[in-house]
Amino acid sequence: MLFDLPLEELKAYAPQPVEAPDFDAFWASSLAANARKERVLECRLVETGLERLEVRDVGFAGWGGSPVRAWYLRPRGETGDLPCIVEYLGYGGGRGEPWDWLLWASAGYAHLVMDTRGQGGASLKGETPDEGASGLGPSAPGFMTRGIQSPQTYYYRRLMVDAALAVEAASLLPGVDPGRIGVTGASQGGGLAIAAAGLSPLVRAAAPDVPFLCDFRRAVEITDKEPYAEIRRFLHVQYQGETEAFRTLSYFDGVSLAARARCPALFSTALMDETCPPSTVFAAYNAWKGEKEIRVYNWNGHEGGAGAQVREKLAFFSAHLGKSAQAGVGL
Fold first, then answer.
1. pTM of the entire structure?
2. pLDDT of the residue at 324
3. 8 Å CB contact between 156 and 252
4. 123 tagged catalytic
């Protein structure tokens, strides 16, 4: 069903996020506290039986220096430095197996797939524990309210720092052109792509699909779907914690992070998406400061444009990153 604003109103929907005065200082200090001389901890070639692709098992230093797992794929036999797509995962998912991620390397890119700390029990398996999660206050089941009592302890502080550091790690991998890195992901992965683009100057292009983690208060007020429902369930019991909860969430809102992004972007949204309502996606899209486009799928839900959007992203990244060492000259 069409449950959100009409499309013409969505195009103009640009709420002013409530930002704490220390928003930028918070993120600068979060990144500075996780600066490391050695970012890539492991980059081990693995045999997968994929004759056309070369696969490495990567570990990079994420939040607090704890290792974050990732798959690094690239076309076998390619000797030049390639543009790299860093991909983030949907809620509850982990990096799974290398053969789950054939698209971007098959299209001629280097491809880094970041595991999601603490997740991976709901779909593709994960292998990165959420170190730093002990000693937190009460939370609803899931990740949306873990450590929500303070921006310092909130789960997505660790995960968004991981997302930005994955871009740094990608720039250091063998066979990657550090001047041509793009980020993408759907749902939670789309929210992390926005965060990475807002936090890392190394991102040259971003393609967030049906992004999660945007315009939190509106999302919680207009949808009953998971994972936003976790916040509602938490406040249903911890009702005296509403002010501090939304203050914490304001530091992680994709609308504010999009306003810090300057690279070209290709968004997508679906007008029947009750998981990530289209108004919350347009809120981030309209805040984006760089060159931007959005694809709107009128009759789709949280699957968004599916294969049709893949075609759009292939063209977008080809235009902004190129596909080979030679194609990138002059970009």
1. 0.95
2. 54
3. yes
4. no
